[in-house]
Amino acid sequence: MRQYKTFSELKLLSKRQMSGHTGILICALIVQELILFLATSLVVSFIPGTDILSNTLYYVVTFIIQLLSGLLQAGCCLMYLNCACNMPFHIGNLFHCFTNNPDKVIKIELLLAVINCICMLPSDILVWMTPNALSYDQLLFIAFVTMLCTLLYALITLAFVPVFYIMFDYPQFTVREIYQKSMQVMKGNKIRYLLLQLSFFPWFLLSMFTLCIPLFWVVPYMNMTNTNFYLDIMAASNRQSENIY
Known about the structure:
Elements: H1 7-18, H2 22-46, H3 52-84, H4 96-99, H5 102-129, H6 136-156, H7 163-169, H8 175-186, H9 190-198, H10 201-208, H11 215-244
């Protein structure tokens, strides 16, 4: 029988690992979000999205941005893995994959980007078809549909959560093998992972009433806990393999 750490143990371990490194993790978060914000803002500025052609172009460009954002996300995973394993790390880890196997990262991100596009399509079409002057009810309906689309994407991709961690732990794996390993280790752990994410909801709720300032600490804390979740399920999987042989 697999033995996993409790959520409390994972969170306590994460806090200890973050001690003395919180500043670096917060700075990395700001850099990552700033890059994505600027990229998205440029697209919105230059592609008005007022007709079918510009909407299609907007969709294509945002798809490319998501592929490239995978490079940052992979670098983020590397940084947290190094921190969790007590290895040297720095903000530069964010850009590691821009020069180290970027094609592999983009291939991994490709499936996630396609799933995201399909899941978010109803929300995007609704936005395209809605006039600029929106009523409160229209805004509420669009927000509700977007939330459902986002939830659908999150549920579908639960099995693929650790793909970038696995890429670094098993550099010899092909993209297909990475996805296969991800589905293997997440088997029986998807609900646990989902519950772990929900356990951070009070922090996000608190952030809504405090100008989102706590998020600068909560997001790195959550990322570190997710990293330890991955290391924990991998350790359990390895123990089970040893017992079999």
